[in-house]
From TrEMBL:
UniProt keyword annotation of Phosphoprotein present: no
Originating organism: Corallincola platygyrae
Keywords recorded for this protein, A-Z: ATP-binding, Cytochrome c-type biogenesis, Membrane, Nucleotide-binding, Translocase, Transport
Pfam families associated with the record: ABC_tran (PF00005)
Domain ABC transporter: 2-219
Record's keyword annotation contains Iron: no
Coiled coil: none
SMART domains on file: AAA
Entry protein name: Cytochrome c biogenesis heme-transporting ATPase CcmA
């Protein structure tokens, strides 16, 4: 589904990675691992077209993303490590906003989504007054309505309780089972079918000032 070729990323004169190649096929989850500062977020932002690499190319379903950026963005959903919700709007208004601006399945109403992610009863409260976990749930509700094939998720489990983590992993499994793909970072252990999950390790250590030239792919 997505292929990255020869990516290079330099931040503040520091080489985070180079010659980085990855592919992800329908039904696969790619977990990007590495210590703090290794470049996981930087990589995800490149894959989501939010940052430009110093070198390299992205191909989506065999075509260069640079040739049809809009087409790629219509098939990709990125959720960053911050919830990215509108603080002054209620959770319900946030979900209605998402439904207007991004491709969605029409199976569930905003209200049904809100109930699904455990926020019934909080629909009238400005999102900025919700707890960190409730704000995360509001942002993640998009995963129950998005028709995007590829999800790129930066630390999606942050602030979620056990039930939230389990519900999200169930949603991941559904997405993979219907031919979707997921690229994500998490410091948590995933409880998912091992054959669907591959890991990509960015190999820089906190102690090392030297850049790492290649990444190790762990099966
Ligand atoms: N906009 C930026 N300008 C300059 N340097 C940046 C920028 N964004 C990130 N960096 C640097 O790039 C390096 C990698 O950051 P990044 O957020 O990609 O790491 P990470 O692996 O996601 O870390 P963490 O596990 O802590 O989230 C860090 O040293 C960071 O300071």
């Amino acid at each position: 589904m997505l292929e990255a070729r020869d990516l290079c990323c330099i931040r503040d004169d520091r080489l985070l990675f180079q010659s980085l190649n990855l592919t992800i096929a329908p039904g696969e989850l790619l977990q990007v691992e590495g210590p703090n500062g290794a470049g996981k977020t930087s990589l995800l932002r490149i894959l989501a077209c939010l940052a430009t690499p110093q070198a390299g190319q992205l191909l989506f379903e065999g075509s260069l993303v640079s040739d049809d950026r809009e087409g790629y963005l219509a098939n990709m959903l990125y959720l960053g490590h911050k919830p990215g919700i509108k603080q002054e709007l209620t959770p319900l208004e946030n979900l209605e906003f998402y439904q207007r601006v991004s491709p969605v399945t029409d199976q569930l109403s905003a209200w049904e989504l809100l109930t699904l992610v455990g926020l019934a009863g909080y629909e009238d409260m400005p999102a900025g007054k919700l707890s960190a976990g409730q704000q995360r749930r509001t942002a993640l509700a998009r995963l129950w309505q998005s028709s995007a094939k590829l999800w790129i998720l930066d630390e999606p489990f942050t602030s979620l309780d056990k039930q939230g983590v389990a519900g999200l992993q169930k949603r991941f499994a559904e997405h993979l089972a219907t031919g979707g793909a997921i690229i994500m970072t998490t410091h948590q252990e995933l409880q998912m079918e091992a054959e669907n999950v591959r890991r990509l390790r960015l190999g820089q250590t906190l102690a090392s000032a030297e850049p790492v030239e290649a990444v190790e792919v762990v099966a």
